[in-house]
Structure formats: structure tokens, C-alpha cells
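Case study.
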Amino acid sequence: MKFTELYDELKSIYGELGKWWPGTREEIIISAVLTQNTNWQNVEKALVNIRKYCQGDILQCLGKLSEQELSELIRPAGFFNIKARRLKNLLSWIEMYDYELDRISALNTDKLRTELLSINGIGKETADSIILYAFEKPIFVVDAYTKRILKRTFDIEYKEYDEYRKLFEETFTKDVKLYQEFHGLIVEHAKAHCRTKPLCEQCPIEDCFYKIKGKSGE
DNA sequence: CACCAGGCCCTAT
DNA sequence: ATAGGGCATGGT
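After joint prediction, the assembly is written out as follows.
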């Protein structure tokens, strides 16, 4: 399989994902931090707590909480102390725009990314997830799975995150829906074939990275 | 019981 | 520059 065929290959297996990253724009922003190195199921539990606690605007609601209180709400998502601090940092930034996401969305993508990356606790993947899924601007999200599939299936390996991102953005048309689907497909593919050993053997992709070593890790 | 999950930051070489 | 460790819950 050629790299240029990856999207079609994954799509032919898993079909259209539709709205893959669930939730409102506000919830996507919050969950981008909550899901850092964390199973989505645990993120969901934290989101349930947040929805139950907050009436009205979630961002303003959480922005008023102390780090202590916030950490209690998000406890099931793990790393709750550090994530509470990171969320507070992110919310303080949003507060500078009076919690008006449309004003943030009006920034050009480069400026938006630079500002997000200046927040302690917001790294490249988290920033790009927010940009792509919450603000719906065409930027490709690179995660550990993306790197693995490139290395094992196409023998492509870079040092820098942005090199991976550029490869996708220069190979595939800069389209929001395409990038949203593509990243979702990569993650779903990993979930489908990474969880259990037997499924690894059934991976439908020829020379799939899971097949090569028969496990999910390095 | 061990291992992993839709990362990121800080520190010590 | 870059490897290594810490952060923490819940599912398999």
C-alpha cells in the first residue's frame, strides 16, 4: 500500500465516522486536555461529572472553580491534579476573550496555534486537536498511533512532530472534514486491533503495523 | 498480577 | 539536544 492510499484504505474498512470527537465545542476543548495519555472511557466519566455540576456555560462554570474543586470533578480521568492546573491555564486564556469562542475562532490558525502552545500544559497534539475539532480549522493531528503506522507500514520516521504534520498536510488536501475523519480513523484502527492479541492477527491492512510485531507497543 | 490509555512538562546529563 | 521520570484512574 502507498501512503497516499492510507485514507481510502482505512475508510473502506471503518466507513464514515461522522462526528467522531463527541460533544459541544466547549466539551471538545475540555476533553482535549482530559484525554492526554488517557483512555476515552475515563474522559467520559469526568465529562459526566462536569455536565452534572455545571448548568449553563461549562467554560465559565469551570473557570470559577478552584483547582482543588476542579480536580475532584475530573478525578476519573486520571492525572487529575496536573490536569486541573492545565485546564485552569487554558480557561484563563479563554477568559481573556471573555469566554467568547467566536473571537478566538476569528484568529488566524497560526496565531491561534501559537497562543495555545504558549499555555503550560497544552502541547502540539492537544493544541491541534482543539484547532481541528473545536474550531474546525484544517490542521492535521499527529498522535503516537500516527507515528507508529508511518514507521511500521511505510518506513517513515521523523524527529519532529511538525514534520509528520506537514507530510499529511502536503500530501492530502487541507480539508477540515478529511482531517477530522483521517485522525479518527487512525485512532479507531488502533483501538480495533490493539486491545486484544487475537484481533491483531485479523488486521485487514496488509503489512499493518500491528501485524508486524504482533503487539501494540514498540 | 501487569500493562496500557486519543501527552506534557521538568530535570539531569 | 534528548532520554527519563512523574502524573493516576479504570479497563482488560
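Observations recorded in class. Residues 21, 31-33, 35-43, 78-79, 82, 86, 120-126, 129, 141, 143-145, 183-184, 186-187, 190-191, 194-195, 216-217 of chain A lie near DNA strand B (CB under 10 Å from a C1'). DSSP finds 14 helices and no strands in chain A. We will return to this complex in the next lecture.
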